[in-house]
């Protein structure tokens, strides 16, 4: 079923959609960016060796980020 043809929750479930939490979704998106070599935090400069690695580890570990 095409995504444009899904209008109800029943159709979404029938299409095989699986609900995931935000932590899992963030983790999966980060893993895909790292695997493909794309910039993870595009436009953020000056934190490549400090904040960004810590944030990546926190996301991959599914930690709470406040």
TrEMBL record:
It comes from the Bacteria. This is Magnesium chelatase. It comes from Flavobacterium circumlabens. The lineage of its organism: Bacteria, Pseudomonadati, Bacteroidota, Flavobacteriia, Flavobacteriales.
């Amino acid at each position: 079923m095409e995504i444009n043809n899904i209008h109800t929750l029943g159709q979404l479930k029938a299409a095989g959609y699986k609900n995931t939490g935000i932590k899992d979704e963030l983790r999966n998106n980060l893993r895909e960016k790292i695997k493909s070599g794309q910039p993870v935090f595009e436009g953020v400069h000056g934190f490549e060796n400090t904040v960004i690695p810590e944030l990546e580890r926190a996301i991959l570990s599914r930690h709470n980020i406040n």
